[in-house]
Automatic annotation (TrEMBL):
Domain of life the protein comes from: Eukaryota
Protein name: Protein FAR1-RELATED SEQUENCE
Species assigned in the record: Canna indica (Indian-shot)
Family annotation (PANTHER family): PROTEIN FAR1-RELATED SEQUENCE, PROTEIN FAR1-RELATED SEQUENCE 10-RELATED
One Gene Ontology term from the biological process aspect of the record: regulation of DNA-templated transcription
Example GO molecular function: zinc ion binding
Keyword rRNA-binding: no
Family that this chain belongs to: Belongs to the FHY3/FAR1 family.
Subcellular compartments: Nucleus
Primary location class: nucleus
Lineage: Eukaryota, Viridiplantae, Streptophyta, Embryophyta, Tracheophyta
Length: 794
């Protein structure tokens, strides 16, 4: 049952989030939404809604976000600033069901105690003046948001603020518009053109729109310069009256930008005029609308994000740089000694306190939220790790193959950020937690990995994929001795373009032969002999870079890692990263509170994307390209994305032919493509248990059968996919069976165990008693666990 709409102040939460404040030195503003709505047409009901719509009681919106942006647009036009004052959440699912937006001058500031220290103090401008202007929207049972309360009058002077600056999405950068340009939505087109206008120096308004006669959705939008057309002539003009000459707002400017919706759901620029009839000038602004993919960040005056961070005593304040092959260490100890001295404090005391308050608030809302941190002697943050309940659930279901993204560390101006990710059953990226590190030492990564695995209930991954870094490799060996550590091949080859640039230029054939040796060697012996021959042929045996790559070949050359499960079905599949988003909008002056909040909102987009694909997989059936019993079987089991990949392998298998090279209960087959008879794959098939394997090792790496095995299945008349070759992580039921209580119990026991160890090690006598009690307790736990298992199997 949801809370009622009556004035229940106890159930309301005071947000106090300014959306645009003239006194920005006193307030920092931020908010995040899933998309940038059309600020002038924010609701799509049948009611008349012009560019200058006024709010009224009973007005309806499709979402809370639409209501917020409409009121912000109205406030910008009238001339006041807005903040979120109150919210109400549902008792069912804690979702927001009521929002109250107020003028930033609502309420009064608390009076400070009077004191006189003999100093003259500057009288500060009053920010709050008791203004009652507000709008309140409530979500109704049919999903729409309705204005239930409205006060339009202000008790202070209002004046239109300066022009709004729109920052272009990452994918467009500083691109100029052109005919045929494509956008995913009309909102994206609007954001792009507004950003272009801000950069060039003119203002934009919506001139014309057209809706579909079928569903009333937009099919055309035309944006024009605000100086388009001409100001109307006054018929009753009286020359005898002296009037102040007003600057004409319309000058007949022809500049315009029109987009239309095509059948394939893309918006195309169909008309475009870039020339203006007036002088262009870029004006500063106070509000920034930033869009990146599905996130929109509203920041009042970006300079407010900067904060001064006290440097640690006798140190410089910098981020430190992750080793990116820039210096190949001569020995491990020398490297670790060097980097261990680079630890620096980069986060100030206020920043640390704000982030920890954020963590506490998140954990208070959900006890399964996990965070841990380290501070230096000045109580300034040096390390942190955090993960929410959804990250834990994702790890439980898809934590067999984990990728560690440290690409943020390649830029010394970036926040020292580490991200744990994987792929779900739709091949979408999922988050397993975030970390902050202020140095690149092995000890720091050991701390991070140990706390990460605690948060993930102690389950170690099958594989960990990373960029190359000596300290990361050493930490993984210590914390995850049974986990396969793989270094990205594409990262190695990209670095080769730099390290071997002179060789690539002077010896044209080397690069092609080099990559063929890496990618096409079927066995380790073949690779090593080919490598040695290649270096001898080009006289590169003394090249230190190539010597180094050979020394770590077990971690990056495909023939050595193809038996390690990495959940990478495609050779071109790369880990999804937020690096572009962060490089553009975040640096080492970004507030940690803003960083954590935006990460939270970015993950909301990932979760929503997964939910939409779950829904589509549940209620749609894939199209079979051939009437195969096996395809019919897996169509009901696999997700749409994985089924499409499996079906492609099945269709491609029809282009191969098979020769039996060994007969018996365990038979061997040679599988060859009709177009490439020189490339052979060896498939082994056991007729007794229907177990099979292929020299390409696709199943071992990706968890989905290759075309070579599927071709052999057709030969030996296997019409249904054996259950042992259907990994749950790729099925529609991949997330079934997760119990969050398991993680909660694990974390609680771990904390108690740490307290137990601390108290039990205080003296030899106490240690002996603690050890004995622990052994007895452990025996009882194992006995209870065995008894429960026996009862379940009876």
């Amino acid at each position: 049952m949801e809370t009622t709409s009556s004035e229940d102040e106890e159930s309301l939460k005071d947000n106090n989030v300014d959306l645009n404040d003239d006194n920005i030195e006193h307030h920092m503003t931020f908010d995040v939404s899933s998309q940038l709505a059309d600020a002038d047409n924010l609701f799509s009901s049948q009611q008349q809604c012009s560019e200058n719509s006024e709010p009224f009681v009973g007005m309806e919106f499709e979402s809370e976000e639409s209501a917020k942006l409409f009121y912000m647009a109205y406030a910008s036009r009238v001339g006041f600033s807005v903040r979120i004052s109150k919210s109400r959440r549902s008792r069912n699912d804690e979702s927001i069901i009521m929002r109250r937006f107020v003028c930033s001058k609502e309420g009064f500031h608390l009076k400070k105690g009077k004191f006189d220290d003999g100093k003259k103090k500057r009288k500060r401008a009053t920010i709050r003046e008791g203004c009652n202007a507000m709008i309140e929207v409530i979500q109704k049972y049919y999903g729409r948001w309705v204005v239930t309360k409205l006060v339009k009058e202000h008790n202070h002077v209002v004046a239109a603020p300066s022009r709004v600056l729109y920052v272009a999405p990452e994918s467009y950068g500083n691109t100029d518009p052109y005919l045929g340009m494509e956008f995913s939505s009309h909102e994206a087109a609007q954001t792009f053109y507004y950003a272009y206008a801000s950069r060039v120096g003119f203002d934009v308004r919506i001139r014309l729109s057209r809706r579909s006669t079928r569903d009333e959705s937009f099919v055309m939008r035309r944006f024009v310069c605000t100086k388009e057309g001409f100001s109307p002539y006054e018929d009753n003009y009286d020359e005898s009256k002296k009037k102040r000459n007003r600057t004409p707002t319309r000058e007949g400017c022809k500049a315009m930008f029109e987009v239309i919706k095509k059948d394939y759901d893309k918006w195309i620029v169909s008309k475009l005029v870039l020339e203006h009839t007036h002088v262009l000038a870029v004006a500063p602004s106070k509000v920034h609308y930033i869009q990146s993919d599905s996130e929109v960040v509203v920041l009042a005056k970006s300079g407010a994000l900067n904060r001064e961070k006290p440097a640690a005593p006798n140190t410089k304040t910098h981020l430190g740089k992750f080793d990116d092959f820039s210096d190949i260490p001569s020995n491990d100890n020398g490297f670790r000694t060097e980097v261990s001295n680079t630890a620096q404090t980069v986060f100030g005391l206020e920043d640390t306190q704000n982030l920890l308050e954020y963590f506490k608030r998140m954990q208070a809302e959900n006890p399964t939220y996990y965070y841990t941190f380290q501070v230096d002697k000045n109580n300034c943050l040096t390390h942190a790790f955090w993960a929410d309940a959804k990250a834990k659930m994702a790890y439980y279901c898809f934590g067999d193959a984990v990728k560690i993204d440290t690409s943020f560390k390649n830029n010394k101006n970036m926040v020292p950020f580490v991200m744990f990710t994987g792929v779900n059953h739709h091949l979408q990226s999922v988050n397993f937690g975030f970390g902050l590190l202020t140095d690149e030492s092995e000890a720091s990564f050991v701390w991070l990995f140990e706390n990460w695995i605690i948060a993930m209930c102690g389950r170690h991954p099958v594989s960990l994929s990373t960029d190359y870094h000596e300290a990361i490799g050493s930490a993984i060996s210590r914390v995850f001795p049974e986990t396969r550590h793989r270094i990205y091949k594409w990262h190695i080859l990209n670095k080769c373009n730099e390290k071997l640039s002179d060789v690539y230029v002077t010896r044209n054939a080397f690069k092609q032969e080099f990559e063929k040796c890496i990618n096409q060697s079927e066995t380790a012996d073949i690779f090593e002999s080919s490598w040695i021959s290649l270096l001898e042929k080009y006289d590169l045996g003394e090249n230190s870079w190539l010597q180094f790559l050979f020394s770590i070949r077990q971690k990056w050359v495909p023939v050595y890692v193809k038996d390690a499960f990495t959940a990478e079905i495609s050779d071109t599949q790369k880990p999804e990263s937020l690096i572009n988003f962060f490089e553009k909008y975040f640096n080492n002056k970004t507030s940690l509170l803003v960083l954590a909040s935006l990460l939270e909102q970015a993950m909301v987009g990932w979760y929503e994307r997964e939910s939409l694909e779950d829904l589509a997989t549940s209620y749609t059936r894939p199209i079979l390209r051939t009437p195969s019993n096996m395809l019919k079987q897996v169509a009901d089991i696999y997700t749409r994305t994985v089924f499409d990949i499996f079906q492609e392998e099945f269709i491609e298998s029809l282009g191969y032919f098979v020769d039996k090279i060994e007969d018996g209960v365990v038979s061997k087959f040679s599988v060859t493509n009709n177009d490439d008879i020189l490339t052979l794959f060896t498939v082994t098939y056991n007729f007794s248990n229907k177990r099979t394997s292929c020299s390409c090792c696709k199943f071992e790496t990706a968890g989905i059968l290759c075309r070579h095995i599927l071709r052999v299945f057709l030969t030996v008349d296997v019409r249904a996919l054996p259950e042992c070759y259907i990994l749950k992580r790729w099925t529609k039921d991949a997330k079934n069976g997760f119990v969050l209580d398991e993680c909660v119990r694990y974390n609680e026991l771990y904390r108690d165990a740490m307290k137990y160890a601390k108290e039990g090690s205080t003296s030899e006598e106490v240690y002996t008693l603690a050890k004995s009690a622990l052994q007895i307790g452990f025996t009882q736990v194992l006995a209870a666990k065995k008894s429960i298992v026996n009862q379940c199997t009876m």
